[in-house]
Amino acid sequence: MRQSMTLIPTLREVPADAEVKSHQLLLRAGFIRQTASGVYTYMPLAKRALDKIEKIIREEMEKAGAAEILMPTLQPAELWQESGRWDGYGAELMRMEDRHGREFALGPTHEEVITAIVKDELKSYKRLPLTLYQIQTKFRDEKRPRFGLLRGREFIMKDAYSFHANQESLDLVYDKIYEAYNNIFSRCGLDFRAVLADSGAIGGKDTQEFMVLSEIGEDTIAYSDSSPYAANIEMAEVKRTYERSTEPERSLTKIETPNQKTIEDISSFLEVKSEDCIKSLVFNVDGEFVLILVRGDHEINDIKVKNILQAESVELAEHADIEKLLGCSVGSIGPVQLPSEIKIYADLAIQSMVNAVCGANEEGYHFTGVQPERDFKVDQYADLRFIKEGDPSPDGNGTIHFARGIEVGHIFKLGTKYSDALEAKYLDENGKAQSIIMGCYGIGVSRTFSAIAEQYNDEHGLKWPKNIAPYQVHLIPINMKNEEQKDLAESLYQELLQQGYEVLMDDRIERPGVKFKDADLIGLPIRVTIGKKAADGILEVKLRNSSETFEIHKAELLATIAQLLKSGE
Known about the structure:
Shape: globular
CATH superfamily of the largest domain: Bira Bifunctional Protein, Domain 2
Oligomer: single chain
CATH class of the largest domain: Alpha Beta
Radius of gyration: 29 Å
């Protein structure tokens, strides 16, 4: 492609609203342009890179036995109402009405549509298993779009769905897709981890996320320093023992603690350690108020609370509800002398506490000398806290460290959540109707593109891995008004194209400095410069990944490029 014939609107200044490196560079290098908040146009360079990511995805999905389809973006509300997600999905679901008043959603995902299709078309166990996928634009009304393509309202996604007669079949396909995802992200050149995860609004269990390691990642990964164990911090189990203190139990005593609201306030005011305090929070769990307890130096993990209580919704109680329920504010809540109708769920660490401090359910007062089970009863003990750095790894090997990650893929074992709701059944060997068992597998294509940009850059611009780069070679004649340079550039351009190489030739009438700055911004793997030595057939080759520069004769160009691309430079 001649650079004069495409659209690459580079910028010299960093856009004011671009917070992270990938967003800044994709804008500056002319890959994307914002159309509205969280909505972007993919310019020609971006489209070529996205096509390469999609090609890798298609190749690996085909190896895993999946067939590609394309479903509608516009989805009738009736399907979402059947699954129960029309009201439950939340404000992120973009809804609309047609001219007849019929309600639709712009699809954020396609579980309902694909289940309805399979329900109508697949009747016998003989057609199972089956895996179908698509690559398509999705829509979610993000409250706060940010980080460019990493959290937008319109994005490109690959979503796949598998259908099975039994759990063993699902497990087998799940493992194949897991392997395919590892291959996809490896071929994209990403530094990533597969981690245990929560299924969120999709539902199901046995789920893993694929996280690209990045300081700007919105998710925290807990990983072992001595084993492959990795999990989203929300799902990392805490497996440690807590030794009970041997100090004598003291009597329960109420003391005045004016204006002391937080654990830090109380521990400082009473001169006790935070781990000697009980943190008490009221949660609204599917419309019922419960009290959750953790040690003062720990944090309540609401995902674990949701899973332990098998709840649909877990939210912190409103201040007004707490005042009405207990007659105090959040800073004075505690498990002692609690109204009998409120159940208490406590983290395992609470069991070993002796002479603890907790709120007295009276404004400005706390109890000291609190003994669990003596002074209050717990309905259930469970692992309810977030894991901490330094905790033992749940697999028994090493200790836990934290890293930040960008989620680019997610795989789920859905079970019969959607097939039951939409009555998608098949006839087994005995002619009996059975619910189809399902799996679900997603990749954020535009997110992956942005994550690559986040990992591959320097102070001068982007540095695309060769598998994803929009073009392999950036051919730059310094002076297009010089006939020797122009003729040699044209000759080499045609020769490279004939050999099947992807070439971007900068045929613009621009100063050398502008061309070189743009080349560094765009970040193609190999730059070939035709300058003052054109008459002698001498070219300058620069590798974007290493900044290495060397001269070759024009007769060596094809062999040099072949070798550089083969070696992974």
